[in-house]
Each structure stands twice: as C-alpha cells, then as structure tokens.
Amino acid sequence: MTSSDAILARLMQLHPKVIDLSLDRMHRILAALGDPQRRIPPVIHIAGTNGKGSTQAMIRAGLESAGKRVHAYTSPHLAQFHERIRLAGELIAEPDLAAALEECEAANGGAPITFFEITTAAAFLAFSRIPADYTLLEVGLGGRLDATNVIDDPALTVITPISIDHTQYLGETLAEIAGEKAGILKRRVPCIVGPQEPVAREAIEQKAERLFAPLRIARQDWDSRREGDSLIYQDEHGLMDLPLPVLPGPHQIVNAGTAIAALRELGFGRIEARAAVIEAEWPARMQRLTRGPLVEAAGACELWLDGGHNPAGGEAVAATLSAMARKPTHLVCGMLNTKDVAGYMRPLAGVAQSLTAVAIPGEPNTLPAEDTAAAAASVGLAAGTAPDALAAVQRLAVDQPGARILICGSLYLAGQVLRQNG
Q: Which residues form the Mur ligase C-terminal domain (predicted)?
C-alpha cells in the first residue's frame, strides 16, 4: 500500500455518508488551508449528466495542442486515485498527492467531511502550487452543492446533456435536476450548453437570466453533426469540416461540439478544434481492449469496455453498437443498486444477444448478479450470471467464438476490469 492509499483509507472514515451535499464543510477546510481555490489558474467548470468526462478530455486536448498547460480534475477514478488530479498535463505524482492529502487531513482536524470534499480540497491545493494556463474542473454530483462549486469567478462554465439520474440527491424531475446542475452558473460568466430537453433548457435559461450569464446553446448558437466521414461544426463564426472524433459513438459528436464551442468561446480556432476531436483520450468509454489477461481469455472475441450506467448511457452504448460492424454482441454487466438498472438495459435489448450479470468486487452498493440478471430478463434480454467478469468472458469465448463482448454498467466495474487487465 502506498502512502497516499493509507491516507485515503483514513479519509474514508471521516463522514458516515459517502454523499452529503453541502458547501459548509468545503468552505471550512479551504479557509483553514488559506483558500487555495482562489489561487488556481482560470477555471472551466463542467456539469451535466452524461459526457462530462469526454467533453473535458476533448477541451484538454484542444488546449494542450495550443501549447497551454492544463490542470484537470475528474471523478471517479478507474484504476488508481491519481487519475483524478492532473497537474499541467501529467497525473499527480505520488509524493505530491500524499503531501496534499496529509496537509488537508491536518487542516481538517478530524472534523466530519466527505471523502470527495477533502480530496477535492487536496486537488485545489495541488493546483495552486503548479503554474498552468487553465484548470478543467468536473462536477462530482449535481452542481449547486457540489464540492467543486466554490469557484467564484470561473472563466467559463459548461453544461453537457442532462437526464434523470441521482434522483435521491438532485430531485425527482428533470427540471429539478437541471436546476441543480445550473447551480454552477456565475454572474456574467458565459456558459456553453449542450443539447437539452426543453424543460432542462428552460431551467438553465431561468438561472442564467437572473445572473446575466450569456448562454451559447446547442442547436441555437452552435451545432455539430456527422456528414459522411466528417464532423461538421457551425456557429456564428463559420463552419468547420473536421475528422470524426477518435472517441467512438454517435454521442461523441455532441460532446465534440460542446468542447469546440468551449474552445471557440476561449478564443481558439480550427487547429485546436481538430486536436480536440482526434487527440482526446478517455478510457472506459467504448474502449476496445487489445492486450492483457482478459483479452487473452476472450480468444477470438472482440473485447470492449464502457462505464455508462444510466438510461442515457444505455442509449449511447446502444447507438454506438448499432453503428459498428454487424457482429453478435454479448454483454457482461455489473451495476450499483442506486441506478435505474432496467432503464439502462432497455435500449440494449435490441442490439445484444445476451447479458451475463456479475457483482462488482469490493463495492458495498453492488447489485447482486441475480438481481441484475432479473432486470435484464424483464426488458427482454436473455440473461444469466457468472462469478466475475473473467469467468463470464471465458464462458462466452467458448460458447460464442468470434463474437463481440462488451463489459458495461458501471465505472466501478470498469476500474476493476482495467486493474485486472493490467
């Protein structure tokens, strides 16, 4: 166990709830640290239900192509915690992470604080100590009361498509959830708005009007679409004919457009837009695995990995599979008990031949494999169970040689798979 692992384990014990949305504890610890969030490079703050990570990755690729040094904060991590904090383009080094965590632990003094809050404070501390040109800050959950929402004057805010998710924390309706996401809007700070349902767009517009925040709205002020083998982006400055995004899936056309709109708002042009779509890297988003023990176990089968976990994520995966070369597709799926499991699976029933359910190792909120299989059967998917992902892949390799296997349903499962696969 590394030094940071030991500290992180201690920090997990500081609050009885994993999620407890509030800004009071953040303001307290940040004040004790000297308010490092006021000394970080200009912030691009990103909220939304789906596409936040992919959009952030594309914005980062565009900025870095212009020679800019970029900090980035995202969650959750997949294989190791260090993935959450990127300093001037590089994952935070172990000594720097351990030092920041120890300083935050000391400043907190044992007071109740959630794991996400205190680790977000550590990210701000690390960002404040390394020079950079921009800070990309991804919301953890919601927006209004998220631990990242302590930035008073971001350079830009971004809201990706909003859908129903985390209703126990954000509200039962799309309007309520959109209102929480719109909580990142700041007075007179422009916001890039991805495609939204009318009720979500209205909630964002109402919040923006009160704050005099200029909106750049998809399909009104800018648009992105696929034409043949090109991505077409258009706004008031003109039209760009670009390569298709390297991140697979029709939904990445929207994410690319959102990222390009953000880059344009920051004053960048075609060169940075092109880099955004062809140089972005974002694991576990329809990622094809090409080496490692799980790939060997798959034999002649293609092996893919995706971390989508809500109904909109299921629709995105289904659309991606539909656009790929025709091949029998079999799912290996593990999900958390906090998710709309049937809602996620329903779009997949038309594109997959079977689903093998697994529990997510080490996750207290994992849905038992039997329950996941029952949800799959309820939407018309032929379903069974396996002890783990490796066993599921091995069985499918024997029973369905040459098929496509997609491991899906949770970023936590995706992280387990990436660690297991080296």
A: 295-410
CATH topology of domain 287-420: Protein-Tyrosine Phosphatase; Chain A (3.90.190)
Structure pTM?
0.89
Q: For 217, phi and psi rounded to 5 degrees?
A: -100, 135
Secondary element (H or E) of residue 69: none
Which contiguous run of DSSP H or E holds residue 25? helix 24-32
Partners of 317 in beta bridges: none
What is the domain partition of the chain in residue ranges? 3-279, 287-420
Contact 262, 247 (CB under 8 A): no
Q: How many angstroms separate the Cα of 216 from the Cα of each of 235, 248, 259? A: 10, 25, 12
Q: What is the pLDDT of residues 58-104, one digit of tens each?
A: 999 999 999 999 999 999 898 899 999 999 999 999 999 999 999 99
Name the CATH superfamily, with its identifier, for domain 3-279: Mur-like, catalytic domain (3.40.1190.10)
Question: What digits encode the pLDDT tens for the residues 76-86?
Answer: 898 899 999 99
